[in-house]
Amino acid sequence: MAINGISSYGLNSIYGYQSSINSLRLSQALSRNPKLNQSYSSSSTSSLTSRKAAMNADISFVKDYSSKMSDLMNAANELKSSNKYGAMSDLAITSTNNDIATASGKLLVKNDKEYKLDVTQVAQAQVNASEGVKASDYAKSAMNFTVGDGKNSVNVSVGTVKANGGSKTNAQMLKEAADQINKSKVGVTASVVEKDGVASLQLEGKETGEGKTFTVSGEQLGAAAGVENVKTESANAKYSVTADGRTTEYETDTNKVSIGYYGVSVELKKAGETTLKAGVDSGNVASALGDLVDAYNSAVKFLNDNYDRGSGVSRQLRNMISGIGSEQSLKQLGITVNKDATLSFSESKFQANMQKNPNLSKELISGMGGIADRMFNKANSAMNVSSSSLLNGSSQKSFSGTSASSSSSSLESMATNPYSVMGMFSKGGAYNMSNYYAVGMMMNYLI
User: Fold this and answer.
1) What are phi and psi of 258, to 5 degrees?
2) 394 CB contacts (<8 Å, ≥6 apart)?
3) Residue 387 lies in domain
4) What is the DSSP track for 106-162?
5) Which residues, 6 or more positions from 124, have their beta carbon under 8 angstroms from its beta carbon?
6) Taking CA 232 as the corner, what is the angle to CA 253 and CA 198, rounded to the nearest 5 degrees?
7) Is residue 216 left, alpha or beta, with left meaning phi > 0 and alpha meaning psi from -120 to 50?
8) Cβ(285)–Cβ(279) under 8 Å?
9) Same domain, 131 and 119
């Protein structure tokens, strides 16, 4: 049964994957093909073994070569603007001033609208604090007081004597009181604040907003004297949002709010102004750019290590390391060129430059002629190189000039030499219409 052709075409992101699968299947088939053994049955055992070893080494090389270029294509495709599922299309909400408010969440569709946020007051929880005592002094009296939030309460009782009979310090008394409060169900968090040898008990409500209060009552406060006094009143957050020239004011009992974008959470930090807008997730872009540099370095090192295998390898190495981008452009992306032609990537420098000039950074990455396009095209070009040119400096020569092949016609030699068939398959590219019959011939040979 003859196979006239096989077509395999899909998105850019699966090109490399499909090519790698084709190379792997070809490698597996060639290693088991009886025709290859028959072509050299008259040769000595040692010569045949040597040729088989050389052939297997070349097959392994071609497979690794395809894998390296496929990895580079996929890494570059992740940053191409045409990839709607890539890092450059992954829109996140950012705040121009994270000290005022932070934003988290992503958009499923592009939205260019900006929201100006003016925070007048953040939501606050009630805070009480004792007057403060010398931490290392021994406690003069026990503690016995109650903390209640209107729903739950806890009675705090701390004696001045340790289990071994020794006296407790003021700091130890306050810590025991804080532990009892924190272990209870009352909506208050207790902590001991110590500075310059002076300790005080601080109580803070677990919820923010007006009406979220608690009380401290009791006549025996001891080292926590003054903790019944309110230091900070509970309060609501007050802010305004301006979009499309229209300003709307809001008030809420929490600092976690939703503004404008669906599914986006904003946390108010302090009074002031900031702008919320959609943009690429710089963290994801930085990660993808780092992966691209790693894939490029891996490809360059592989080509350099196999430089003498064939003229195609040396040409691809020269093509790979040339025309990556200007020094200034690479610097904007946090990339520097090493002496061995590999690249180094600084995520911190990229993030800083991205924040200063996001539009320039995005253009240098995914714009026309950006680093993603350049890397993708280099890898794509390398994938379309014929395997014969990659191997014309290695063991492939022993197959093209043997006595067995000289006794056959050139057409028969081409049809029975795995490297010739493989070269036909690679020359036009696995997704080229003109390559269908090369694929068919290869499959006929294998079957």
Assistant:
1) -115, 130
2) 54, 57, 58, 61, 308, 309, 310
3) 12-84+285-446
4) B-SS-----EEEEEEE--B--EEE---EETTSBPSS-EEEEEE-SS-EEEEEE-SB-
5) 208, 232, 233, 234, 235
6) 140
7) beta
8) no
9) no
Q: How far is CA 175 from the centre of its chain?
A: 43
In this structure, the answer to whether residues 265 and 394 fall within a common structural domain is no
Q: How many CB atoms lie within 10 A of CB 329?
A: 18
Q: Which of 216, 232, 248 is the last residue of a domain?
A: 232
- Residues 256-302: tens digit of each pLDDT: 999 888 778 999 999 999 999 888 888 889 999 999 999 999 999 99
Task: Indicate whether 5 belongs to any domain.
Answer: no
Q: Give the amino acid at 274.
A: T
Q: Are 117 and 100 in contact (CB under 8 A)?
A: yes
Q: What is the pTM of this model?
A: 0.56
Of all residues in the chain, the percent with pLDDT exceeding 90 is 52
205 with 245, same domain: the answer is: no
- Last residue within a domain, chosen from 232, 249, 267: 232
Residue 196 lies in a domain: yes
pLDDT digits (tens, 9 = 90+) for 398-441: 444 433 333 333 333 433 444 444 444 444 444 433 344 444 44
